[in-house]
Amino acid sequence: MNIFPPDKDIDVDAVLAGYLEEAKPCTYIKGEMRQDLRFKFQEKSGTIERAVVTEAAAESGMHYDGANSLFDSNCPSCKKCVSIRYPVADFKRSRTQQDAWNLIPGRRVSFTFGFKNQDQLNEHIGIAKTYYETRFPDHAAVLTAQQTLTAPFLLNGKLPLNVIEVRTADDQLVGGSINVETQSAMIGVLYYYDISLMHLQPGRQIIMTLLEQCRELGKDHLYVGPWNPVNSSLANKTQLRPYELYVDKQWHRFEQPVPNLKARGLTI
């Protein structure tokens, strides 16, 4: 399987087993069919091997999914979803984003590997359930919030997943994120927030917090999954800048809120 750039000296077959999933209705673009090329880690592969492969996969526009697999879009008719990442060192909050950041005075951020206890997990499940049901109703009908949040840990993956949460000064949970770390990057797996706190711009709060954590940890990039211009939840990811989109097997940097792909000779 030739899924990585030539400069990545990786024996893919020793670490991953790939297969094409069946096509199913897309939860991002209504009326389209989604089909992923999925790669599951071989049971014998170790932590270091998985970390190296995961980082290389992210650099190649692929996504990390839970504790034991990677996937890449292979949709039959639609090619609008591409990977997006933020170069951490270059990110600076705009005046509007700084105003949003200041909406939570005395913010509390915690960074842990896994959930600390059942109470914390239940609290996250509570806000994630409403978030999924409201923002992604088709997805929520298939997968409950409890399954979504516990499955990665129950799979006993060899790459530890971290939980980053944002709370108000009086300890109200604003939102959470589950991520995997590699040597030079942080890769987002799940995001969710309390939709009753939209006045605090919770989605933006989560991503800006992740960028601050990446800066503190010395990471080069924050990968935040797919982007496409049709789905508003995904399209809004370009409101934080600069950002890079993986198009035509290369990362392209943009500074404007709406990427002008045509000017670069790019199509999706």
Give a structural overview.
The mean pLDDT is 88. Helix 4 packs across helix 6 (145-154). The strands form 3 sheets. The chain has an 8-stranded mixed β-sheet, with helices on both faces. A 4-stranded antiparallel β-sheet has the order 1-4-6-5. It has a two-stranded antiparallel ribbon with strand order 2-3. The radius of gyration is 18 Å and the shape is globular. The chain has 268 residues and is α+β, with helices and mostly antiparallel strands. It has 8 helices and 14 strands. The longest helix has 18 residues, at 118-135. It has helices at 12-15, 47-59, 95-101, 118-135, 137-142, 145-154, 202-217, 232-235, and strands at residues 16-20, 24-25, 33-34, 36-41, 63-65, 69-73, 82-87, 108-113, 161-167, 173-181, 185-193, 221-227, 243-247, 250-254.
Question: What would a concise description of this structure say?
Answer:
This protein is of the alpha+beta class. The protein is built from 8 helices and 14 strands.
Number of strands: 14
Q: What is the arithmetic mean of pLDDT?
A: 88
Radius of gyration based on Cα positions: 18 Å
Secondary structure category: alpha+beta
Number of helices: 8
Topology summary:
Blueprint (H helix, E strand, L loop, with lengths): L11 H4 E5 L3 E2 L7 E2 L1 E6 L5 H13 L3 E3 L3 E5 L8 E6 L7 H7 L6 E6 L4 H18 L1 H6 L2 H10 L6 E7 L5 E9 L3 E9 L8 H16 L3 E7 L4 H4 L7 E5 L2 E5 L14
Helix pairs in contact: 4-6
